[in-house]
Amino acid sequence: MAFGAIVEHDTSFSEWRPIARQCFLAGVPPEELEWRCASAEASLFDAPLTVPSPKPDAPNPILRSNCLALLKSILRHADQTRFDLAYRILWRAQSEPSLAAIPLDPDIARALRMVHQIRRDAHKMEAFLRFRDIGESQNGRRLFLAWFEPDHYILPTVAPFFTRRFTDMDWAILTPKGSITWNGEKCTLSRTACSKPDLSDSLEQLWQTYYMAIFNPARIKTKAMRSEMPRKYWKNLPETRLIPQMLAQAGTRVKAMETQQPQEAPYFHKRLQQRRTEKPEP
Amino acid sequence: MILSLALAELRTYHEQTMKQSLSERLAILSDAAKYDASCSSSGAGKRDSAGTKGLGSTGNGICHAYTPDGRCISLLKILLTNFCIYDCAYCINRSSSNVQRTRFTPDEVVWLTLEFYRRNYIEGLFLSSGIIRSPEDTMAQMVHVARELRQVHGFRGYIHLKTIPNASAEQLAEAGLYADRLSINVEMPTEQGLAAYAPEKKAGIIRHSMGEMRTRIDAGKERSLSGRRPPRFAPGGQSTQMIVGADTATDHDILASSSSLYSGYKLRRVYYSAFSPIPDASAILPVRPPPLLREHRLYQADWLYRFYGFQFSEITAAQPDGMLDLALDPKLAWALANRALFPVDLNRASREMLLRVPGLGVRSVNAIVTSRRHKHLRLEDLARLNVSLRKVKPFLHTTGWSPTRLTDQINLRQAFLPSPQQLSLF
């Protein structure tokens, strides 16, 4: 009988914590513990797992606050090996209390990389999520709807950002990993997967006009664009479908600027110049 | 006495322009604003609408989209009007240009900002304007937009206003009350450049306005003896922009100018904008733009000054013609010229010295400094930080690695140059 636990793929820190605690109090080292995802395909050799029962006199695990924050953070990552890594850090931190402060330790380096990915995912969600106007809600406020596909379980991370920013309107954010809704007073988080709604917003045309006009055809740096706005986000953004067309026209636009002959100045410029000579500034 | 246009002329012009649709005018007035490189929406501190009836928040600044020119869209960057009585050679909106002219009403700018903001397209507004009638008049319209946004609509997002030199002191005080950042462009790195390219703008007046803004920004941060806060004034500070490659100024001139701007006026940012070809360009401008790499090198030098403890004079000291090395980044070029200081000990060197090692960024230096309190570092540990070992190797030594004569090799520069590529046959 192997020790371990079967967990849901979206298990959060608060759900993982009691199981990890129980295993720790039973004195099971990370090498002897298996964390298995409920959604993963069962294989023939999978042994049934049991969560060990704690020893009565075992000391409680102790973590420094920075280590606790690190564990809380990495449990939002989508990588299914995160449970194993978190338990290993918990175990090691008992004999190496300053572990979380050593960025060059292999486990910590990996955890920090995960933290970085989660932070980037949350940042990109705050940046690339687009609300669409869908009319009025029951209480007479304007109602908006958004669709986004985050890589990690970051809805609790980003919810405060959206509620504090878009306070005076009602909105819902739908994702394959759950949803956030706001009605002006209460923010509701759900972990039920949503499907992509079919949305359109007439204002998107103005936004596309702006996107085309603010682009400078004389400087093409598509690599810089793609490193900050990777292609995986493009399908849900209203403006990115214009990019091929903008790039195709850029060459001719620049050529036209370079070959353009100097033109005669407009009439009002001549009037201005005339007046300046008549009435010079003191 | 300021030049003013006859009212009748303005009226016919306004009647014409208001026939254009909002979309057409948005295209013209954002096209006219794109040569301003600044798009930052940070530095205003944290603010949000929780518990209020308003809309919007500010924080670290978010880039909401990127265009194929590699620049980000953070703010709705538009002009109130591209009609202008000034004739600055580098500008698309100069009075002698045949570009199509139009304008927004302040209400339209307010509406566009709020609607874009609600859809999470932008962080706020960057409003600039051509000079119409007089500087005071133009500034008054811009302040009007900011006031409407803040007071009528409870907008708590980011507002960046381009200040018009010559605007009155009251207008400046009111602008600072609503705006998070103010800016005036110095445009040209040297005074002679400005005199030649922008005859109506005076370097002295621009510097004077910047000085005045600095005084007000500083005063806005100080509490009185009784602990009372002074009225808010542009908490995001001020920034400026210089055009690179339109005149003959060298990188040394440009960086010297930045140096005095950063220290003299406490600017948050100096932006370098490689002169870019514009439609209906003035005949005194070069036809070909400078390489974009030059602008990139200037930004790297600027970063070295702001985050790495370099002085601008050090960066250009080894360059005889006053131009930055286009083939190598400025930090590497500096290290190659100052090899007597290297190699440094990875486990003992000061933070300041580690920041000067090519290939180590601020984040990796921080990780090194915290980690070495707990363990002895070897070169392999650096690989875990995504540091390019090839780049740092000649400049570091630690247990298990010594560059011996590598640091002093005469052809070390060759090792870092990009490999030559055969020209295309077609």
Describe this structure in words.
A 5-stranded mixed beta sheet of chain A has the order 4-5-6-7-8, covered by helices on one side. Chain A contains 9 helices and 8 strands. In chain A, helix 4 (106-128) packs parallel to helix 5 (155-165). In chain A, 42% of the residues lie in helices and 14% in strands. Chain A folds into 3 domains: 2-121, no CATH class; 129-190, no CATH class; 202-282, no CATH class. In chain A, strand 7 and strand 8 form a beta hairpin. The longest helix of chain A is centred in the middle third of the chain and has 23 residues, at 106-128. Chain A is elongated. With 282 residues, chain A is of the alpha/beta class. The model of chain A has no long low-confidence stretch (mean pLDDT 91). Chain B has 426 residues and is of the alpha/beta class. Chain B folds into 2 domains: 7-236, no CATH class; 339-416, DNA polymerase, domain 1 (Orthogonal Bundle). Chain B has 16 helices and 10 strands. Chain B has a 6-stranded parallel beta sheet with strand order 3-4-5-6-7-8. In chain B, strands 1-2 form a two-stranded antiparallel ribbon. Chain B has a two-stranded parallel sheet with strand order 9-10. The radius of gyration of chain B is 24 Å and the shape is globular. Chain B starts with 6 loop residues before the first helix and ends in a 10-residue tail after the last helix. Residues 1-8 of chain B have low confidence and may be disordered. At the A-B interface, helix 4, strand 4, strand 5, helix 5 and helix 6 of A face helix 2, strand 1, strand 2, helix 3 and helix 13 of B.
